[in-house]
Automatic annotation (TrEMBL):
<protein>
    <submittedName>
        <fullName>Cytochrome c, class I</fullName>
    </submittedName>
</protein>
<dbReference type="GO" id="GO:0020037">
    <property type="term" value="F:heme binding"/>
</dbReference>
<dbReference type="GO" id="GO:0046872">
    <property type="term" value="F:metal ion binding"/>
</dbReference>
<keyword id="KW-0812">Transmembrane</keyword>
<dbReference type="InterPro" id="IPR009056">
    <property type="entry name" value="Cyt_c-like_dom"/>
</dbReference>
<keyword id="KW-0349">Heme</keyword>
<dbReference type="GO" id="GO:0009055">
    <property type="term" value="F:electron transfer activity"/>
</dbReference>
<dbReference type="InterPro" id="IPR036909">
    <property type="entry name" value="Cyt_c-like_dom_sf"/>
</dbReference>
<feature type="domain" description="Cytochrome c">
    <location>
        <begin position="211"/>
        <end position="297"/>
    </location>
</feature>
<feature type="transmembrane region" description="Helical">
    <location>
        <begin position="21"/>
        <end position="40"/>
    </location>
</feature>
<dbReference type="Pfam" id="PF13442">
    <property type="entry name" value="Cytochrome_CBB3"/>
</dbReference>
<keyword id="KW-0408">Iron</keyword>
<keyword id="KW-0472">Membrane</keyword>
<keyword id="KW-1133">Transmembrane helix</keyword>
<keyword id="KW-0479">Metal-binding</keyword>
């Protein structure tokens, strides 16, 4: 064994000695060039990031984050940053004037707004919420510090917020604090007006189910589908939960409940956040979500092929 190691070292040294200064210089230059190319690509990526605005299936506008100032006036917004559990200030644009200018007033009568994010997160937020509360598109930290945050809800993952981050004036409307971080997508690259029933038909529970299952479906839409898919529809940040085998079929019921309540108590270092602690009637919400997932065992559709995903 020892001899083998020596042999290997010898071979390695001999080989090394063949690298003449000329070779070294050449290798260094190539490395430098590769580095420069990477840097140029990274900068081009940042500069080429467009936010795609869609109405149903039609692309209405492609916008760079810095072009938002032609639609709305930038302000400094102070919020309670739910992901970090502290107050923070952002440079941000009010959402309503942006949507008015891009989609026309008609967006106000639409059903939902679906946000697509670089990391696969894809929440579908009712238009009514944007009419009732003040939402903003944040584009930078107000103090010029990096536009990132320490996501305490996802095992302290440090995440980039840009190009655009959706925030709410939760100091003016403290009731929003009861919802956790579900409607605060970061890394937004798509903003789309949609009718939920046509955009996500595969998520609906079977006809004639209990009121409990129906409520569970609404909770699932609000708290889970931004990350997870059901029958291939929903967010692409976390595993599919229904097809081909439902989690309610392979998880022991008591562990499924415990997982949603506190994932870290089951799996070390998991990045799934617990169902937000502030949600009213949390225990009931949890049971209704499981009732919905259980009912979905009877509704299995083959997910659409990957490349046909919208
Ligand atoms: C912010 C994203 C996010 C949200 C929101 C979220 N999850 Fe998850 N979930 C994950 C990730 C990531 C995993 C994989 C975690 C792991 O393996 O450690 C996961 C795993 C799971 C699993 C385990 C699947 C398996 O087979 O291992 C279940 C069940 C689950 N989530 C249910 C839910 C439910 C129900 C909700 C809504 C109350 C929810 N999740 C909300 C990100 C999320």
């Amino acid at each position: 064994m020892e001899r083998d190691q020596k042999h290997f070292l010898n071979w390695h040294c001999n080989h090394h000695s063949c690298i003449t200064p000329y070779c070294r210089c050449l290798i260094l230059s190539v490395c430098l060039m590769i580095g420069l190319i990477h840097l140029a690509h990274a900068q081009a990526d940042a500069m080429d990031t467009f936010i795609k605005f869609k109405n149903q299936d039609n692309v209405v506008q492609l916008l760079k984050p810095e072009e938002l100032n032609t639609f709305s006036r930038q302000t400094i917004l102070n919020i309670f940053e739910v992901h970090e559990r502290r107050e923070r200030q952002y440079k941000a644009y009010p959402v309503q004037p942006v949507l008015d200018r891009i989609f026309g007033q008609g967006w106000r009568a639409a059903d939902e707004i679906v946000f697509s994010c670089k990391d696969g997160y894809q929440p579908s937020i009712p238009v009514a919420k944007f009419l009732a509360y003040d939402a903003y598109l944040a584009v930078a930290s107000a103090d010029g510090s990096p536009f990132i945050l320490d996501n305490t809800l996802q095992n302290h993952e440090v995440v980039e917020l840009g190009p655009v981050y959706l925030v709410w004036d939760n100091l003016k409307f403290p009731i929003l604090l009861a919802e956790g971080a579900a409607d605060m997508p970061y890394q937004i690259i798509g903003i789309e007006l949609a009718a939920f029933a046509t955009r996500f038909p595969g998520m609906f529970p079977p006809a004639r189910v209990s009121a409990e299952v129906k409520r569970g479906f609404l909770h699932f839409r609000k708290y889970c589908m931004a990350c997870h898919t059901i029958n291939g529809q929903g967010g692409g940040k976390a595993p599919e939960l229904n097809y081909p085998i439902s989690v309610t079929e392979y998880f022991k019921p008591e562990y499924l409940k415990r997982w949603i309540d506190d994932p870290a108590s089951l799996r070390y270092n998991t990045t799934m956040p617990a169902l937000a602690a502030e949600i009213p009637e949390r225990e009931k919400v949890l049971e209704e979500i499981i009732a919905y997932l259980t009912a979905m065992q009877r509704v299995k559709h083959t997910p659409p092929a990957k490349n046909s995903k919208k």
